[in-house]
Design goal:
CATH architecture: Orthogonal Bundle
Helix content: over 70%
Strand content: under 5%
CATH topology: Peroxidase, domain 1
Protein name: CRISPR type III-B/RAMP module-associated protein Cmr5
CATH superfamily: AF1862-like domain
Shape: globular
GO biological process, one term: defense response to virus
Radius of gyration: 16 Å
CATH class: Mainly Alpha
Subcellular location: Cytoplasm
Structural class: mainly alpha
InterPro entries: AF1862-like_dom_sf, CRISPR-assoc_prot_Cmr5
Number of strands: 0
Family: Belongs to the CRISPR system Cmr5 family.
Oligomer: single chain
Largest sheet: none
Length: about 140
C-alpha cells in the first residue's frame, strides 16, 4: 500500500506541475473547460479514440498558427504523452503513439486507460483550483 500511495502522490505532484505551466497562459480558460471532459471521453470512447479527437481539435497536423482552442488541446496531448512515457513506458509521437497503444493487449490497454483517467482526475481538480477566471490573487479573499 505504501507504493500505491507514493505513486499517487507522484502523480499529484506531476499534475500540479503541469498546471503551474498553464496558469499564466492565454488558453487557460479553454484548457480548464476541455480537460474536465477528457477522463470521461477516455472512459466512454477509449484512449485511442480520445487521442484521435485531441489530434483533430489541436490541429496537430496543420502548420497554421494555433488559437486558444488548439493550444489547449495541444497541452492536453502533451500531458497525456508525458504521462504515458513516464508512468507506462509507452513512447511515440502522434501516429507512433497510437500504434504503440494499438499493440497492447486488451488487458494492458484497459489498465493503462484507467490509470491515466486517475491521473487526469488530478489535473482536472488542480485546474478547477488553480485556473481561476479572475486574476490569480494571493490570499484570494475580498474584504
Amino acid at each position: 500500500m505504501g507504493i500505491m500511495k507514493k505513486d499517487n502522490r507522484m502523480k499529484a505532484i506531476d499534475a500540479f506541475e503541469e498546471l503551474e505551466q498553464v496558469k499564466n497562459k492565454d488558453f487557460k480558460e479553454k484548457f480548464k473547460s476541455h480537460i474536465k471532459n477528457i477522463p470521461m471521453y477516455i472512459y466512454t470512447n477509449g484512449l485511442i479514440s480520445t487521442l484521435a479527437f485531441i489530434f483533430k481539435k489541436a490541429k496537430i497536423y496543420k502548420k497554421e498558427q494555433k488559437g486558444e482552442e488548439e493550444k489547449s488541446y495541444l497541452k492536453i496531448y502533451e500531458i497525456i504523452k508525458s504521462y504515458l512515457k513516464y508512468y507506462e513506458e509507452i513512447e511515440g509521437e502522434k501516429e507512433q503513439l497510437l500504434k504503440n497503444l494499438l499493440n497492447l493487449s486488451s488487458s494492458d490497454y484497459r489498465k493503462i486507460s484507467l490509470r491515466l483517467i486517475n491521473y487526469l482526475e488530478y489535473v482536472v481538480k488542480f485546474s478547477e483550483a488553480m485556473l481561476n477566471s479572475d486574476e490569480n490573487t494571493e490570499g484570494g479573499q475580498n474584504g
